Amino acid sequence: MAIISEYNEQDNKPAVSAKPFNAVLDPANPLGFLEAVFEFLGRESDIFKSDSLVRDVNAVVRMVKDKLETEERKRKDQGPGLPGNPEKKLKEDVTVKETKTEGVKEAMEEDKKGPLAPNIGNGLDLDNYSWGQSIQEVNVTIPVPHGTKSKFIVCDIKKNHLTVGLKGQPPIIDGELYQPVKVDDCFWSLEDQKSVSVLLTKKDQMDWWKCVVKGEPELNTQKVEPESSRLSDLDPETRSAVEKMMFDQRQKSMGRPTSDDIQKQEVLKKFMAQNPGMDFSRAKIS
């Protein structure tokens, strides 16, 4: 496994003066407040130059929403507490960090009801990360707080297991990989101090992954559509295998025989024609 760091952590950046932001929240129009926030950010920062802005904002919104929902559930479960109880408040502050991902897990349980349609990269956009794939590789992007340095990243890539997160915090990804990878051909890097990019090289380069880590939402591999330009880059043997796999997936989705089934039926028909006196009524094709 290789680690790529694309910046010098020792660089000293000039201090940036804080810009005052003044706005009034109208509870009846919270989106108007957010619009004012983003207009201010657009004027005073380079936030809209980021290609991952929408994904990063979605991750922040989801994280805050899950945290608030978790706190609300705790209040309902525990009932009204005694006012001014510092010990109880301390326990709540400690345990909220351990339970802040419960909302994400519940959302993922809902996603398990059925396979999902893939994103443009033939992967999925999840709450804490997004991923895409080619027939040979899997690319995982995990947003992290802006300004994060590589020394605070935890990324452990093993043949059948992946762990990614920040030091001192619960892992963002931690589980058994969908399929084994070639560890020596896997890499991770910190992109613009705001996202971790993980490249996983598949050991079996003739199959589409349904998920990165087992137990998480799965995509519908029958809807995977590799780019024709990528197919043309493959060697003839690999391209033939990929096209066969795509054909079989389409056939299965329509309840029709796969290429192997068709081949077996042709062999049986030929054998029946050569042996008209034999009884094939109980013949089984396997």
From TrEMBL:
Intracellular or extracellular location(s): Cytoplasmic granule
Gene3D superfamilies: 2.60.40.790
Region (Disordered): 69-119
BP terms from Gene Ontology: protein folding; response to stress
Residues of the CS domain: 124-213
Keyword Cytoplasm annotated: yes
UniProt keywords, alphabetically: Cytoplasm
Molecular function as annotated in GO: unfolded protein binding
Functional note: Small heat shock protein required for the establishment of auxin gradients and for patterning of the apical domain of the embryo. Involved in the specification of the cotyledon primordia. Also required for normal inflorescence and floral meristem function, normal developmental patterning and thermotolerance. Acts as a molecular chaperone.
Stated name of the protein: Nuclear migration protein nudC
Phylogenetic lineage: Eukaryota, Viridiplantae, Streptophyta, Embryophyta, Tracheophyta
